[in-house]
């Protein structure tokens, strides 16, 4: 459980890497992100999920046929969502379209959840590699047993 969506997406990214490194030839697990709510929750910041997190489904709760969780997901496939509503920012007026600073405030670019640099991926892969333990030769083991 987590109330930090960024941290949870990074954890899912690490788990996917872990399963890939240690799991062998099994197919990638399908993650289900549960977003429970007891009142309407709106995430206005434009978000998208890194491609490395997929397959992924985001589940929410509905009350009176209306989703209690609404997210601003401008470029997300609707098949990812179950019980999650899409929130849209207010439309720019004709005059606002000519004012650059208003466009940046009202239409910021999407933040990608679960995105990390290649250096971070390489570091995680190194941490996942099992440490090499040299094996004792059979003759060396016999020598230890006879000297005891």
Structural account:
By secondary structure, this protein is of the alpha/beta class. The protein contains 4 helices and 10 strands. Helix 1 crosses helix 3 (118-128). It is elongated. The termini are far apart. The mean pLDDT is 82.
Topology (elements, then pairings):
Blueprint lengths: L4 H18 L8 E5 L5 E3 L3 E3 L6 E5 L1 E2 L2 E2 L1 E3 L9 E2 L1 E3 L13 H7 L4 E3 L4 H11 L9 H10 L1
Parallel strand pairs: 1-4, 2-7, 3-10, 4-8, 7-9
Antiparallel strand pairs: 5-6
Helix pairs in contact: 1-3
Key words describing this protein structure:
alpha/beta, 10 strands, 3-stranded parallel β-sheet
Instruction: Measure the end-to-end span.
Output: 52 Å
Uncertain residue ranges: none
Please, how many helices? Answer: 4
Q: Helicity range of the residues?
A: 25-40%
Tally the structural domains: 1
Principal-axes shape call:
elongated
How confident overall, as mean pLDDT?
Answer: 82
Major β-sheet profile: 3 strands, parallel
Instruction: Tell me the strand percentage band.
Output: 15-25%
Number of strands: 10
- Strands side by side in the biggest sheet: 1-4-8
Gyration radius, in Å: 24 Å
Order of helices and strands: HEEEEEEEEEHEHH
Question: Given the helix and strand composition, which structural class is it?
Answer: alpha/beta
């Amino acid at each position: 459980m987590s109330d930090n969506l960024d941290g949870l997406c990074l954890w899912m990214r690490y788990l996917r890497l872990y399963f890939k490194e240690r799991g062998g030839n099994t197919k990638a697990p399908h993650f289900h992100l549960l977003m429970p709510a007891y009142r309407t929750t709106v995430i206005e910041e434009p978000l998208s999920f890194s491609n490395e997190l997929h397959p992924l489904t985001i589940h929410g709760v509905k009350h009176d046929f209306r989703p209690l969780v609404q997210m601003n997901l401008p470029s997300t496939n609707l098949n990812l969502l179950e019980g999650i509503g899409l929130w849209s920012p207010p439309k720019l007026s004709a005059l606002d379209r000519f004012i650059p600073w208003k466009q940046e405030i009202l239409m910021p670019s999407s933040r990608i959840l679960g995105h990390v640099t290649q250096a971070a991926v390489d570091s995680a892969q190194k941490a996942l590699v099992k440490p090499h333990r040299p094996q004792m030769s059979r003759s060396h083991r016999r020598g230890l047993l006879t000297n005891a």
